[in-house]
Amino acid sequence: MSTPSMIRTSFLIGVIIAVIHPVIVKYADAFWVNDTVVSSGQSPPLRSLRLPVVAEEPPKCLPPDDQYHGKNYCWYILKNTLGTEVHSGMLIRSNSSDWGWYVTLEHMASVSDMRPTDVGVWAEGRTRITTTLPTGIILGLDFFVPRIGKWGGKKFFSEKRIEFNIELKTTVVIPYMGTVKAKGADTAIASVPMEAGKNRIAASVTAMGKAGTLESEIVFLAEVSSIDLKHWNYDCDIEVLISGKKNGFEFIYEAILPIFHQKSY
Asked: Which domain of life is it from (predicted)?
């Protein structure tokens, strides 16, 4: 039986946790080198590093409050009083009982005359998601973003962009057939348009694995995006393709699993 091709999605993801302009560089556990933040291995207290909060959902979901109200996300918009700096991001929460941390993807834009002039990014963290698929297949996913904080994008055609690394590990347990483990790495992007287009932070990473006659291809996708820097979209999905055969039994499972899709007010 032939294997259907995976559905490809155009958006990538971007990830962020705290935001800070280069002129505000004093905090305990990270420091800026050539406009890039370097981690000392600790996670910073987020509130003290942020611009004023314009919106957050669920209410008070940002640290240190951490009031998620049962949701698996936290999206937010931050803006300085002059309107010359706008940030928006999301926290992608784990659902694993043994891991309470999350991934942050945050897009940062310098603004003049209501148009973006440059891009920044803050991203870090690890999210672990476990879900049970039809027929009892268990999918375990570990999405990791090494900490990066950076201002200043490189020109790429009609936009300015910053690239950063992302990683994915997956484990697929198929009852009575076996287990497939996989790893993948890719590059996420934070960008602003110099003409018309999206402001966005986007990530897409694929982990492909094989164990005997069993195969898996798992894609993790996340994106924060806006046309006008006022109204934002927050999207996260998992694409799944699992196939195998054993003792005369053959199967293919293909699906797009929505983690969340949100819009700002």
From this structure: Eukaryota
Of the candidates 263, 264, 238, the residue with the CA atom closest to the CA atom of residue 127: 238
pLDDT tens digits for range 194-208: 988 999 999 999 999
Give the predicted TM-score (pTM) of the model. Answer: 0.80
User: What is the average pLDDT across 108-132?
Assistant: 95
| Token representation of residue 227 | 């046309």
Separation of alpha carbons 91 and 34, rounded Å? 26
Q: What is the 3-state secondary structure (H, E, C) of 93-104?
A: ECCCCCCCCEEE
* Dihedral (Cα; 177, 181, 187, 189), 10-degree rounding: 60
CA distance 228 to 198: 8
Q: How far is CA 36 from CA 71, 100, 185, in A?
A: 31, 27, 21
